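FORM 12-B: Structure-to-Sequence Request
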């Protein structure tokens, strides 16, 4: 009887040691998994901050560009209005003066059209950049899962 109880105790101890080792291994694996997830979360938070800062910089650049275009447009419109007012106030006696003013108006209208086109191109570029950023965010979120 005494020998059988000792074997049972020894096998219980061995089983407990094996279970203890398995628990330790599982704990180490889970700790490593947690560290990996924590690192991924930190990277995503960092990416989001950088993306937000980049988005803010682009918005500020776009607003500055729009303000510059609007300022130039306003100047051109004012010049055109002054020329039109001048034409109304002063009868043109010489055909050459009329041609000069007409060429100036055409030049200003062309510059205005160029500015409008540049503004559209800037807007399209900005929208493509936003699409690119959104795509990266979606990809990062998908990679997180």
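FORM 12-B RESPONSE
SEQUENCE OUT:
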């Amino acid at each position: 009887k005494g020998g059988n109880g000792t074997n049972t105790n020894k096998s219980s101890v061995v089983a407990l040691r094996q279970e203890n080792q398995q628990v330790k291994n599982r704990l180490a694996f889970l700790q490593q998994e947690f560290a990996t997830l924590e690192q991924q979360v930190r990277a995503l938070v960092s990416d989001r901050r950088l993306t937000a800062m980049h988005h803010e910089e682009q918005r500020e650049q776009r607003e500055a560009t729009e303000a510059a275009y609007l300022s130039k447009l306003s100047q051109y419109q004012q010049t055109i209005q002054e020329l039109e007012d001048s034409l109304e106030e002063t009868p043109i006696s010489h055909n050459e003066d009329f041609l000069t003013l007409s060429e100036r108006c055409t030049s200003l209208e062309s510059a205005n059209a160029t500015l409008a086109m540049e503004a559209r191109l800037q807007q399209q570029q900005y929208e493509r950049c936003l699409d690119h950023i959104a795509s990266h965010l979606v990809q990062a979120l998908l990679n997180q899962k």
